[in-house]
Design a protein that fits this description.
Layout: H1 19-29, E1 38-41, E2 49-55, E3 58-64, H2 77-87, E4 97-101, H3 104-107, E5 111-115, H4 134-152, H5 170-184, H6 194-203, E6 212-214, E7 223-226, E8 229-236, E9 243-245, H7 247-255, H8 265-269, H9 283-294, H10 302-324, H11 336-355
Antiparallel strand pairs: 1-2, 2-3, 3-5, 4-5, 6-9, 7-8
Helix pairs in contact: 4-9, 5-10, 6-10, 7-10, 10-11
Length: 356
């Protein structure tokens, strides 16, 4: 298989489900499915689980939460499917939802099934097969930011979207909510991070910049590129954290994953997307370009950058807690405790810079 496409793997034992039951469900809900399905697992992602279900003449993608996860927030599959269905008419990069299920008797959890978008998904390094020079990489990067700006321009009051948010106070709710999640995710030896949480609470803006549809996990490895034109994005995936909220908070969350060429070796080791390549915009350039295209004031972005890093720290710590409690045996999570502590120090460096 080409390096441009995700390398599928056999389904991990702890992530397996009854293929016979899922086959019966799919054939009852999706027309013209025939033959016996083969199931494989996509390796990407550390939260919800994604599978390829292959029939002789059709491929489907199934999304479900990990074992032991509660159906709320980032693990609410039916909410994610609802958002995708509501957005598809105004944001053509959303894959079509084909079926959804709230009956735990089928595979033990809620799930949904969507069309498979065939294309390239960028991971840690930029594949040579794309044939992009620095100018091409820059165009790819600008197109990536443009799709986020385009999402933020969608009317959030349209049918299916207006009830997703809770109104003014999004930033305040995020600071409070993620701080509480971090306290609940603490494990032995974790960084208490009281100073970081106190700074975010004290320096949060007095009001939201705007209220719009936000993705909340917008990264290169969540977009699909046209296999015939890598500068064209044909899909945006992983909508589980999407909501109505502040667009600069969305950008700050995205930039928490943006490892650039001059970052320290530890942060370089975290890199999951090719943002270090020649031609990629720096974080500062992304912020400035987004500000120009959106018309929003990005002159005091330090708060949003610090929050994005803190939120990522919480996510890492939550996953590590699942590993520490034995709820997952995935060996890639063993080092997440150290990673969370590093992210706390990175937050402090951003805060120090923001303080001048």
């Amino acid at each position: 298989m080409s390096a441009l496409h995700d390398q599928l793997r056999p389904v991990r034992e702890e992530d397996a489900f009854d293929i016979t039951r899922i086959d019966a469900f799919l054939k009852a809900h999706i027309a013209d499915l025939a033959g016996e399905p083969k199931v494989a697992q996509f390796p990407g992602g550390a939260s919800n689980l994604t599978y390829l279900i292959g029939y002789p003449d059709r491929e489907l993608v199934l999304r479900r939460p990990p074992a032991g996860a509660k159906a709320k927030a980032a693990h609410d599959m039916l909410r994610e499917a609802h958002i995708m269905s509501a957005l598809r008419g105004s944001y053509p990069y959303v894959p079509a939802i084909l079926a959804r299920c709230d009956d735990p008797a089928v595979i033990g959890s809620d799930f949904y099934v969507m069309e498979r978008l065939r294309g390239s998904i960028l991971r840690r390094d930029l594949p040579a097969e794309l044939g992009l020079d620095a100018d091409g990489v820059r165009k790819l990067c600008i197109g990536f930011v443009d799709r986020l700006v385009e999402l933020h321009r969608i009317d959030p009051t349209q049918t299916g979207l207006r009830d997703l948010g809770k109104g003014e106070g999004y930033i305040r709710r995020q600071i409070s909510g993620w701080s509480e999640r971090y306290r609940q995710a603490m494990t032995e030896g974790a960084d208490a991070c009281d100073d970081v949480m106190d700074w975010l609470d004290a320096h949060q803006p007095s009001h939201d910049n705007a209220s719009c549809v936000i993705h909340n996990d917008y990264r290169f490895d969540n977009v699909v590129l046209d296999p015939d034109n890598p500068l064209r994005i044909i899909g945006v995936l992983d909508w589980e954290m999407s909501t109505i909220g502040d667009p600069l908070m969305d950008l700050g969350g995205s930039l928490a994953y943006w490892v650039q060429a001059d970052d320290d070796p530890v942060f370089q080791s975290f890199r999951r997307q090719p943002t270090h390549e020649a031609g990629m915009l720096s974080r500062r350039e992304v912020i400035d370009y987004y500000g120009q295209q959106s018309g929003l004031d990005v002159s005091a972005f330090g708060f949003y950058e610090a929050f994005g890093l803190f939120r990522l720290m919480v996510i890492i710590q939550q996953i590590y807690r699942r590993f520490a409690l034995g709820q997952t045996t995935n060996p890639q999570f063993a080092g997440f405790g150290d990673a969370a502590r590093y992210m706390g120090q990175r937050c402090r460096r951003v805060i120090q810079k923001a303080n001048g």
